Amino acid sequence: MPGAGCHPSVPALGRIAVACYPPWWRARYGDDQLGFLADLHAEGRSVARVLPNLMAGAAWTRLSGTGMPATPSAWRNRARTSVTASALAAMPLMILGLYASHRGGYWSGNGRLSTAARVAADAGNFLFPAFALVLLMLLFGWRILISQALELRPGAARRRYVAAMAAPFIAVASGLGLWSLASHISPGGVTGGSYKLSPMTHRFYDVTLVVSPGDPRLVAFLHAAAIVCGFGGWLVAAVLVGRAAARRGPATAGAIRTGVWLSRIATGATVLLSLGHQRLRRRPRPAALAPRREPLL
Amino acid sequence: MNSTRLFPRPDPALLVLTSLADGPKHGYALMKDIEAFSHVSMGPGTVFGCLARLEERGLVRALEAEDRRHPYELTATGLAVLHEQLDELGRVTATSRARLRLARPARPNGGRASG
Q1: A66 vs chain B: nearest CA distance in angstroms?
Q2: How far is A47 from chain B (nearest CA, A)?
Q3: Rounded to two decimals, what is the model's pTM?
Q4: Considering the domain boundaries, does residue B89 fall inside one?
Q5: Which residue of A39, A41, A62, A68 to mutate against B (max B Cβ within 10 Å)?
Q6: The Cα angle at residue A104 between residues A103 and A105, in degrees rounded to 5
Q7: CATH number (domain holding residue B59)
Q8: Taking the domains of chain A in order of start, what are their residue ranges?
């Protein structure tokens, strides 16, 4: 770390706080900040009191990029950190959402499902909007990924690269398909029906709903497979975009800067979508859980 | 009522520019000077965040390091911006004082609450 050994009188906590700043910042202002802390310490003032200010400054600098040199390599590093951090931050959110979803009682009225099946089904429901993140991530990363692909000569290497790029899409599409299938055959789910409308009163007088008997174990398996495909695809996409951003290539600083902002929007949108989706799913389901045939007129 | 809660304290960038107006200073000297003339305490995160923003916009520049600390000085642009900001503040202050002088005679009991 630049300046790490230059100011031995700075307390360890002060050094740690300065180390929280990004490398390009420390290279430029690290010695100045350590000098500041050394002067503060030498005058008998508390370094601990300025630590929150330093930590807040480090967080803000990492978020805003103030003072960062406008070079493609710096922006690539920033994009990589941004994607990795958003992926890591999303994981506990997913787990928390899964727990909240399961505790929310969406499946509580359906005694036919085992606890494991409910957890798997809830996870599938919760992660569904998160699948959109892959598309958004690749949306912002496509310029980088394609530029990397075009850099490679036609041949096996390019084919492997394109296959790696396509893998998350395929995984997510498979996850969506499995999730839809599982929802379709879910026990108690309505898979079809018919009704008759009275021409005089315009009211339904005969309603028949086809309710899926379903197999809880199959549903649980399909949900779990959907989670693995969707979540795995999302992680692979994050890693791919991050790695591509870190490699040398023709991507410009402006393109990557746009990518960083889009990734922030994508992360925020995913969280909002997940929350909104959960609220919608918690609404009482229509009285469709049992077949009925009754005149309504 | 504590007026600092109603009105935010002076902008750190303006305080830094004001402090540098009488010559180059390094970070700690800046903080002490600002504390002395404005009673505003700024931590190192704020001071260097502010210096980075000002340096990025070309309002201040770093000089050769002395004892591993860079002193910072105002650039010509920084000086012009400081003048501009002070003129603006001066206009508000002058208007406010003039209006207070006009309003004071009209207030009953010299401005004291009656009853």
Answers
A1: 6
A2: 10
A3: 0.54
A4: yes
A5: A39
A6: 90
A7: 1.10.10.10
A8: 12-64, 72-294
Structural domain containing residue B42: 3-105
| Of residues B46, B69, B70, nearest to A53 (C-beta) | B46
| Mean model confidence pLDDT for chain A | 68
Nearest Cα neighbor of A120 from A102, A138, A137 is: A102
* Burial tier of A113 (Cβ tally within 10 Å: 0-12, 13-18, 19+): buried
Query: What is the per-residue pLDDT across A96-136, written as a single tens digit (0 to 9) for each?
Result: 666 665 665 444 444 555 566 666 666 666 555 556 565 56
User: What are the angstrom distances between the C-alpha of A50 and each of A39, A47, A57, B43, B72?
Assistant: 13, 6, 11, 6, 21
Give domain status of residue B32, yes or no.
yes
Question: Is the Cβ pair A33, B26 closer than 8 Å?
Answer: no
CA distance B19 to B32: 10
- CA dist list (Å): A57 to A89, A254, A261, B97, B103: 20, 25, 20, 37, 44
* B114 part of a folded domain: no
Which residues neighbour A154 within 8 Å (Cβ) at sequence distance 6 or greater? none
pLDDT in tens, B36-87: 999 888 999 999 999 998 998 899 999 998 888 899 999 999 999 999 999 9
Task: Compute CA A84 distance to the chain's CA centroid, rounded to the nearest angstrom.
Answer: 10
Domain total of chain B:
1
Q: Which residues of A touch B51 (CB under 8 A)?
A: 29
Enter the ipTM.
0.81
* Residues of chain B contacting A35 with CB distance shorter than 8 Å: 26-28, 67-69
Bridge partner residues of A210 (DSSP): A192
State the CB neighbour count (10 A cutoff) for residue A134: 27
Smallest Cβ–Cβ distance between B68 and the set A6, A57, A67 belongs to A6
Domain for residue B110, yes or no?
no
